[in-house]
Amino acid sequence: MRRLLFLNGIKAFEAAARTGSFAAAGAELNVSAAAVSRMVHLLEERLGVALFERKANRLVTTAAGRAYQNGLTPIFDALASLTAQVTAPSSVRVLTIGVGPTFAMKWLIPRLADFRKEDPDIDVRITTGGAAVPFGEDWSCGIKLGGGEWSGLIAEPLFAADLLPVCAPRLANALKRPGDLKGPALLRVAHSPDDWPSWLEAAGTARISARGPEFEFYGQALQAAVDGLGIAMGIRPYIDDDLAAGRLVAPFALSVPKGMRWYLVYRGFSTAQRDFAAFRRWIIRAAAEPAARRRGHRHAG
């Protein structure tokens, strides 16, 4: 027989551990902070385990508390998702994808029409943010660049993140070898300062230092390269379509692994959801298809 201990206390603890305070948990659960504190204290008594270290101005979970919260949060997320599925009208099919702005613009959005042809009844919604944005509670799945380890999430590899300098075709004529690169012409991305040094070292030209204009996102730097402002450090798959269409060229054959990969990330319970399952099948297939074959062009450079 299933033994469920004090569900109100469990909900109170999970909310407090996730938000970091009794007050925030109380606001979420529509009860007072004092009520949350009492429920958590009763839960600790029933479990016989301390879940929090209560400090002056903040809550700190104990080792047992962290382990409990790491297990509880996915369970409550799954319960919320299941409830939303059961209560939603049968005609409403929403898939929310969390992704960085450049990946959305350079790869995902140009291919969504293909997915829509396969599953026109699924309402795809894209939410964007920076590279460090955590997995959102309302996301069906996400696409993230990293090492493949995100707590509580399944990560399936999609692409290698290889680095390759790219520029407008008219600038490529003057670049016969890596030593022809000039520091002020090398466009930079603020959150990836190691890209150029890694590639230049691999090319044997570590004496060159990137000193060109700096941009917040890869997409901005790549657009600047298309416009002829300088040479950008491209990252796959951002550059695949621009190379295939001839908007950018790769003046050198050398590509260098970034040391990370792109992953499809999702919670374990998502595999039982038909809309996510359809998207997962599609994106894994699309990620394996070379841009040149899909677009009918040959890669430039």
TrEMBL record:
<dbReference type="InterPro" id="IPR036388">
    <property type="entry name" value="WH-like_DNA-bd_sf"/>
</dbReference>
<protein>
    <submittedName>
        <fullName>LysR family transcriptional regulator</fullName>
    </submittedName>
</protein>
<dbReference type="InterPro" id="IPR058163">
    <property type="entry name" value="LysR-type_TF_proteobact-type"/>
</dbReference>
<keyword id="KW-0804">Transcription</keyword>
<dbReference type="GO" id="GO:0003700">
    <property type="term" value="F:DNA-binding transcription factor activity"/>
</dbReference>
<dbReference type="InterPro" id="IPR005119">
    <property type="entry name" value="LysR_subst-bd"/>
</dbReference>
<keyword id="KW-0238">DNA-binding</keyword>
<dbReference type="GO" id="GO:0043565">
    <property type="term" value="F:sequence-specific DNA binding"/>
</dbReference>
<dbReference type="GO" id="GO:0006351">
    <property type="term" value="P:DNA-templated transcription"/>
</dbReference>
<feature type="domain" description="HTH lysR-type">
    <location>
        <begin position="7"/>
        <end position="62"/>
    </location>
</feature>
<dbReference type="InterPro" id="IPR036390">
    <property type="entry name" value="WH_DNA-bd_sf"/>
</dbReference>
<comment type="similarity">
    <text>Belongs to the LysR transcriptional regulatory family.</text>
</comment>
<comment type="function">
    <text>NodD regulates the expression of the nodABCFE genes which encode other nodulation proteins. NodD is also a negative regulator of its own expression. Binds flavonoids as inducers.</text>
</comment>
<keyword id="KW-0805">Transcription regulation</keyword>
<dbReference type="Pfam" id="PF03466">
    <property type="entry name" value="LysR_substrate"/>
</dbReference>
<dbReference type="InterPro" id="IPR000847">
    <property type="entry name" value="LysR_HTH_N"/>
</dbReference>
<dbReference type="Pfam" id="PF00126">
    <property type="entry name" value="HTH_1"/>
</dbReference>
